[in-house]
Amino acid sequence: MRPKPLTRVATHVALITFTAVFIGPVVYAAITATQDQSAALSPSLALVTDLLVNVELAWSRFRLGEFMGNTVIVAVTVTLAKTVLSLLAGAAFVYFRFPLRGVAFTLVLFTLMMPTEVLIIALFDVVEWMGLYGTLPALILPFMASATSTFLFRQHFLRVPRDIVEAAQVDGAGPLRFVRSVLVPLSWNTIAALAVVDIIYIWNMYLWPLINAVGPESTMVQVGLVRLLVDQQVTHYGVIMAGAMLTMIPVLVVFLALQERFTRGFALSTER
Amino acid sequence: MTKVEQRSGPAPSPAPGPSADARPPRRTHGLRARIERFDAALAETHPATFRRRSAALWMLLPTAVVLVVFLYVPMARTFELSLYRTAIFGQQRLFVGLENFARVFTSPESLDAVVRTAIISTLVIGGSIGIALLLAALMNQRIGGTRIYRLLLVWPLALSTAISGVVFRVMFDPNVGLINSWLEPLGIQPEWFRDPTLAQGILVMALIWNRVGFNLIFYTAAYQNLPRETLEAALVDGATPWQRFWRVTFPLLSPITLFLLVTSTIFAFFDAFAIAAIFDGGPLNATSLLIYEIYENAFVFDARGLAAAQSLLLFLAVGALTVLQLRQGRKRVVYQ
Known about the structure:
The complex is a heterodimer. By secondary structure, chain A is mainly alpha-helical. Chain A is built from 14 helices and no strands.
């Protein structure tokens, strides 16, 4: 049943208003990204033709290209590692019986309450002691395991029909072959859903990347971009906004590509 | 090898979840009881598939190493640090017991930060979940165009929290910003970042703006998986849309709401740092959230012990809220 016409119009009006408010700042940033310095220094909404100049300046002269490369490396490595590690751990909890399994699972779940930021001072000590301070691995290694992902993979495996598992047993598949040729093909939706969350997480990180940004080789783009606003003698608003627009592209691409799988992946896991 | 004698032909074997849920709830509480109950259910439906326990060890080891080295060890070290007064960034230290914890609550600035964080977080959590739920509900009225709205509404999510802060900082800049140029005809030119209340307002707004997209993608996913029959039954019953939402849809969405409460709490406590840092915690500490104080104390003012105590306070708050939310959830949450 469709709502009455009046209700439909009212709903659209409400949605359009909200959408305008939400994309407003992005549109404003996009317009500023096209402006040269004189236009950007006045609060005008005029489109100027300097977009490519600004992108080029941001990418090369202000090194955002390099920083973006770092962020992408971190995001891809962390997402891949998290997926593999959590998938293996989740499978171990479902398909094996071993002593202290309940305790081990509780200890994994407990880390849900320990966001890295809470441990930032001590994390700094640990990373420095390992000689990793100021390097890219310092941005990758601490985030390779995840309680959330382990938990959700476990939940997903619990719903894998028993016949499939038994068929694999009859075939005599070892644990690793079982994971590779049975579990992984059944888990793409969950993998994709978690990948979306992981990438958003990496993109939003700030405190630890800020502390770890010693040189350009370990600076993530979110830190580099803020420095353009805070540290430069002359603020190039057009360049900053062009940089901001660039950082949106990878997330939007990933989200659009994985949107459907995300919906299906979380459908499974949230049912409990 | 133990095998289940239950190969019931082509019919899919019953999923493990529901059979475990169908039993009358026992009166045991607490995480341990839950896990034990869960283990018992698991043993029934999932007998050990593989017997080589060493394989399980190897599969768990990488996760265990990362969690221990980068979470449990730093956690223990944070406890240790919180008991000391330190100088020269940890080179010298003096055991002071619980003094740092006392300072968190007795020094007026620190207590202010606690209160400020509580208020701002509540606004951000409530605002981002409430708006996302409203938008998801509006988009699911079968009015068409949903895909376009959803596509546009996730844009802020693609901006890093820090970069959202940059955009809002520029947008509200009194000299070059758009907002004041719009307010010019009205004859008002607020100094957004010199007035504590205004700056806090922008902080809350920017955080909500950045987070709604995240909550929205979860709510729209959940909406698409609502059981059609239940919704249609409510429709036949002749309930008003308002009643249908609060009595049918909202309870069905509660597992997701609960999940978003926990993740939004973590966002408001920690990710909010990015924007607070761009506002320099000011003016007059108005946007100096606890996590920003921790950063300043640890890395600028060389007060690592105090920062560690503040960290533990946030840790306890996250833990307590998570447990509280999960417990509330067990009473009210409807699992399908």
